[in-house]
Write a structure and sequence with these properties.
Layout lengths: L4 E6 L7 H8 L5 H9 L3 E3 L2 E2 L11 E6 L16 E4 L3 E6 L16 H8 L23 E7 L2 H12 L4 E9 L6 E11 L2 E8 L5 E13 L2 E8 L6 H8 L24 E9 L6 E5 L4 H9 L4
Parallel strand pairs: 7-13
Antiparallel strand pairs: 1-4, 2-3, 2-4, 5-6, 6-7, 8-12, 8-13, 9-10, 9-11, 11-12, 13-14
């Protein structure tokens, strides 16, 4: 294990697992990072190397050595981008499915940030070197519109609009099966899935964040429903989780949808088709749209309307 900073604690109570104890003691360390520290022999209890599943007794001496943070250098890459609009303050990008927005979880190259650094002259620095200009995200396998800030003034304004829900985002998705309703609003709480920490799920109040999604049926097919979604909040995987909650997951969603897919898709049929915002400098209300990608349209052509 690489050298890093060490911390020593005396357990004030008994814990069923060492990782649970350290999660509560050092909450700023992510679960994935903590797992790597255990695997690298970086946790010692009473002088002996410990496993994540080891019990902690009251009074135990627990020592954790945190390796130095990995330094990233994001390099520009000559990746073509569909730039819907740009000026000196913002840029609106129509992101293709399959592209990660910024590095993380092993993605260091080929991200939207790599492409932005090559294609744009400036990006805001508020989110640091790993996420320059990034105000909001779209899942890797979701396509469509997102706005990028080219300076810190624009970034702060756009972040405020998202927080105050004046930046409006609209999506189109093809769902499995046929919804009974023609429209409605889903209001739940979304948090980490207690059975799988890599997924999100609808959870009881107090265990997640409020998530509100409006939906309306656009077209019905045999075995499928084309819907439009309006986000009232911006939780991780919100539409995908709410679609599953409705009992009609997004077609092509291998995380929240059905395992056996009828179509040869590399991502879910979920597209951010419309973005409405106020320009951070001029105050002009602006609306941007992006048509459904070809692979989405090709699937719709194969379906029989009802």
């Amino acid at each position: 294990m690489s050298e890093g900073e060490s911390f020593t604690f005396t357990a004030d109570a008994a814990y069923p697992r060492a990782d649970s104890y350290l999660n509560s003691t050092m909450p700023h360390i992510t679960r994935s990072a903590l797992k790597k520290i255990f695997e690298g022999g970086g946790v010692v209890i009473n002088g002996k190397s410990a496993k994540a599943s080891q019990r902690v007794k009251e009074g135990d001496e627990v020592k954790i050595t945190v390796p130095p943070a990995e330094e990233y250098s994001v390099r520009p890459e000559a990746i073509p981008l569909d730039i819907v609009y740009q000026d000196g303050d913002i840029a609106v990008i129509n992101k293709p499915h399959g592209m990660t927005v910024h590095m993380g979880n092993g993605n260091k190259d080929g991200t939207l940030v790599n492409a932005l650094l090559y294609n744009l002259d400036n990006l805001s620095g508020i989110n640091g070197v790993i996420r320059p200009g990034i105000v909001h995200r779209i899942d890797k396998d979701t396509s469509g519109l997102l706005v990028v800030a080219k300076n810190d003034r624009a970034h702060l304004s756009l972040s405020e609009q998202i927080a105050e829900k004046t930046c409006k985002r609209q999506y189109v998705a093809l769902l499995e099966g046929n919804l009974k309703e023609d429209g409605g609003t889903v209001t739940t709480y979304i948090g980490r899935d207690p059975k799988d920490r890599l997924k999100m799920a609808v959870v009881p109040e107090g265990h997640g964040k409020l998530a509100i999604t409006e939906f309306e049926v656009l077209e019905r097919f045999e075995g499928y429903t084309l819907c439009r979604f309006n986000l009232k909040t911006g939780r991780t995987h919100q539409i995908r989780v709410h679609a599953k909650y409705l009992g009609h997951p997004v077609v092509g969603d291998r995380v929240y949808g059905i395992k056996k897919q009828k179509f040869a898709l590399s991502g879910q049929l979920l597209h951010a088709e419309r973005l409405e915002l106020t320009h951070p400098v001029t105050g002009e209300r602006m609306v941007f749209t992006a048509p459904l990608p070809d692979y989405f349209v090709n699937v719709l052509k194969k379906l029989k309307k009802i």
